[in-house]
Amino acid sequence: MRVKQLSVFLENRKGSLAAMAQLLGGSGINMLALSIAETDNFGICRLIVSNAEEGVRILRAAGYTVRITEVLVVCVPDRPNGLAEVLRMMEHEDISVEYLYSFVRNSGYNALIIFRLSDIGRAERLCEEKGVKTLSKDEVEAL
């Protein structure tokens, strides 16, 4: 199950993340997961939100540069080697991990990892074949 992720270009200056978060929140958009990769001058904020299309519309209207990408949200056993096993599974199928980040919701005994992969379709099928649970945006929101 693929999930839409927003990637937002932010200036690396005081208050820019707060302004974006306030804009989304003030419009009724809930941020479900968030990651930031930064350099000296800018950052890329990657986030899963309650309504991706509306989030993009709101952000673009406010002048932000935004891109939507598809990612997989994978339930990884929260124990030693849980993540390593999923990564090895991808490696054996020659699927590259472009990036990943984790987030916390009420997931029981699983860590929730967001994967951006070189071949999301094959990765999705592989997870299904191997019994690795993936979550939809609605399932993430319900946790």
Radius of gyration: 16 Å
Structural class based on helices, strands and sheet pairing: alpha+beta
Strand content: 35-45%
| Helix content bin | 25-40%
End-to-end separation: 16 Å
Q: How would you state the average pLDDT, rounded?
A: 93
Low-confidence stretches: none
Q: Could you describe the 3D structure shown?
A:
This protein has 143 residues and is of the alpha+beta class. The protein contains five helices and seven strands; from the N terminus they run E-H-E-E-H-E-H-E-E-H-E-H. The radius of gyration is 16 Å and the shape is globular. The model has no long low-confidence stretch (mean pLDDT 93).
Please outline what is shown here.
The protein is of the alpha+beta class and 143 residues long. The chain contains 5 helices and 7 strands. Strands 1, 2, 3, 4, 5, 6 and 7 form a 7-stranded antiparallel beta sheet that branches.
List the SSEs and their pairings.
Elements: E1 2-11, H1 16-26, E2 31-38, E3 42-49, H2 52-61, E4 65-77, H3 82-92, E5 97-103, E6 110-117, H4 120-130, E7 134-135, H5 137-142
Antiparallel strand pairs: 1-3, 1-4, 2-3, 4-6, 4-7, 5-6
Could you list some keywords that capture this structure?
alpha+beta; 143 residues; seven-stranded antiparallel β-sheet; single chain
